[in-house]
Amino acid sequence: MWKNKYVLLAFRLIVGGIFIWAGVSKIADPLSFAQNIRSYQLVGQTLSFLTAIFLPWVELIAGLWLIIGLYPKSSALLISCLLFFFIVLVAITMARGLNVDCGCFGTFSRQADWWLIAEDSLWLALSLVLLFSPANDFCLLKSKSSKA
Amino acid sequence: MGLKKILTDRQTWTGLVSIIGLSIILGLASHPGLIKRFLAGEFKQAFILKEDFPELVFISLPEAEEAWSRQEAVFIDSRSQEQFDRGHIPGAISVPLEDLKTGREDLLALIPEAPGIVIYCEGGSCQDSTDLARILEWRGFKNLKVFPGGWAEWQQSGLPVETNVEE
Asked: Is B125 close to A70, i.e. CB distance below 8 A?
């Protein structure tokens, strides 16, 4: 199943689409996103600000490139790392007893809770399938380390 | 296909550097004004544009103490009810941000007419006081002050406290 090129394309559209949405929803209002990052109480004002300026663009470009198949392995690797980081971040936040908005999708934000961890884990699973799958059909730039 | 193969592939790294590099360029290009204002020292207290919230002022512990002792302002505690019950600034009114966000609009009616309003939360890097202040400004409240030091700073300085918990 994981080698079916249409299933893999669907995974790319789902994971890439989510990251494009996550990026676009935050680009317009970086201050709100910076405030969200700050509420996790892990990093200071400067790092919160810089993350809010650059991270939405990383999400948008990685999502877009995953869909069109430009450096798909790099995109899948980056997205997997980000999702892993988000899961750890939400888990730490919950363990600290903090009640925060996740800041995931701009104004469509929601609480950082178990459901968010479950969702992120699902996207991480799809992303890892894309990362380790040897197939790379429908890609603009095929990875040399993948089988053609 | 193994992780080692992916990580040793030069194309993987070219892609990663491209994504991050392009993000930095686009991030800088999309918000030059905000970056300039940040470098000039804005947003040290909170990520809000002063022009959007002209009523909002940030105050220090001595200023909060003065406003409290002279009864120049009503104090609003934006933390949860449980935290408020365990201890708060004497005379403060509990308006938990989390309750207000879930529709407890009646909490706003608890705020009396006063020459000023001082809002605080736990302190440190808590954001509830700023978030509540933004909501209050939208609702037309005037003379809003945020005390970022919050409960932690007040308590540590040995100033009077009040609890609702029976000993």
From this structure: no
CA dist A110 to A48, A100, A102, A113, Å?
A: 19, 8, 6, 9
Total tally of structural domains belonging to chain B: 2
Q: Which residues of B are catalytic?
A: 121
**Secondary structure class of B93 (helix, strand, coil):** strand
Neighbours of A73 (CB within 10 A): 29
Min CA distance, A71 vs chain B (Å)?
5
Contacts for A116-119: CB closer than 8 Å, 24+ residues apart: A116/A90, A117/A87, A117/A90, A117/A91
The string of pLDDT tens digits covering residues B92-103 is 999 999 899 888
Are residue B71 and residue B21 in the same domain, yes or no?
A: no
End-to-end CA separation in angstroms for chain A: 18
Mean pLDDT of B38-65: 86
Give the separation between CA A42 and CA B37, rounded to whole angstroms: 23
Structural domain for B84, as ranges? 56-156
Rounded to two decimals, what is the model's pTM?
0.78
Element spanning A32, H or E: helix A30-39
Count interface pairs A-B at CB distance under 8 A: 111
Please give the residue of chain B at the shortest CA–CA distance from A41: B125
Residues B74 and B141 in one domain: yes
- A31 → closest Cβ in B26, B49, B131: B49
Average pLDDT over residues A6-21: 95
Q: If interface means Cβ-Cβ distance under 8 Å, which residues of chain A face chain B?
A: 27, 30-32, 34-35, 38-39, 41, 44-45, 48-49, 52-58, 61-62, 65, 70-71, 73-75, 77-78, 99, 131-134, 143-147
pLDDT digits 0-9 by tens, A73-89: 999 999 999 999 999 99
> Is the Cβ–Cβ distance between A67 and A17 less than 8 Å?
yes
Q: Which whole number is the average pLDDT over A99-125?
A: 85
